[in-house]
């Protein structure tokens, strides 16, 4: 059984990935505050399996605990591979950094960067000695490379996620049975996050007109298109340890 653990499966790219991956021989495990009511039914119809583990990733201790529960339920000899997809994220606060509350900044860093750190750490520790393929996919953003006024927290945490991928990739190296890590920017995807961006006043996000234009010209990926590209990338195996990739630059 191939097992894929996905955070943030209730909507957007996480939902699309889960729907794409519930197929025969594969189990999808969702992590998040809210389950997707249709995924169990879709998995049953597709011949796959689905399980949901409730977890508020804004709480550091909850992130570690959920991985212990998940891996406590997995029989290593029955697993053909394990993939963790760190997809959950938040955009707020939008606006100049001086207008952001300390509480919201702390939540942002916890969800976008600290939770993935904890989940990656737990996966490596809890699967120590496993000889099956183990992969971590961190869903990043072009904002991790390009600064945007009004997105200082988002840009900083996505850049941090990319460096987490590179650094832990360097720790794991290319030895046999190493956990493989990659970071993938999915392009501009038409999700609820984009709706939030387009409704943001220009004084808080000066580049809002660009994103409004992308919607008007249908120049964004759908979540399903982004998910398909990520799945094809993983299936192709055309990546190396610690790669930081952008689907818009890949032939997949």
TrEMBL record:
GO terms for molecular function: oxidoreductase activity. Its EC number is 1.1.1.320. PROSITE patterns: ADH_SHORT. It is found in: Cytoplasm. Its main location: cytoplasm. CDD domains: SPR-like_SDR_c. Keywords: Cytoplasm, NADP, Oxidoreductase. InterPro entries: Biopterin_syn/organic_redct, Sc_DH/Rdtase_CS, SDR_fam. Belongs to the short-chain dehydrogenases/reductases (SDR) family. This is Benzil reductase ((S)-benzoin forming). The gene is yueD_1.
């Amino acid at each position: 059984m191939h097992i894929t653990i996905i955070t943030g499966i209730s909507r957007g790219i996480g939902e699309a990935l889960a729907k794409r991956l519930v197929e025969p021989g594969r189990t999808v495990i969702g992590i998040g505050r809210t389950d997707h009511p249709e995924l169990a039914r879709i998995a049953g119809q597709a011949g796959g399996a689905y399980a949901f583990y409730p977890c508020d990733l804004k709480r550091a201790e909850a992130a570690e605990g959920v991985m212990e529960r998940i891996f406590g339920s997995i029989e290593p000899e029955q697993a053909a591979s394990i993939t963790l997809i760190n997809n959950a994220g938040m955009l707020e606060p939008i606006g100049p950094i001086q207008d952001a509350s300390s509480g919201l900044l702390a939540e942002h860093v916890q969800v976008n960067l600290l939770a993935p750190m904890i989940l990656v750490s737990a996966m490596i520790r809890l699967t120590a000695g496993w000889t099956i393929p183990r992969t971590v996919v961190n869903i990043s953003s072009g904002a991790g490379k390009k600064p945007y006024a009004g997105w200082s927290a988002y840009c900083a945490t996505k850049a941090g996620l990319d460096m987490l991928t590179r650094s832990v990739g360097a720790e794991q190296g290319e030895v046999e049975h190493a956990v493989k890590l990659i970071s993938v920017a999915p392009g501009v995807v038409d999700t609820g996050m984009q709706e939030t961006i387009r409704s943001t006043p220009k004084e808080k996000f000066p580049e809002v007109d660009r994103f409004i234009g992308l919607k008007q010209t249908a120049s964004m990926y759908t979540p399903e298109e982004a998910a398909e590209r990520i799945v094809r990338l993983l299936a192709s195996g055309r990546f190396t340890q610690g790669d930081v990739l952008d689907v818009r630059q890949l032939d997949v």
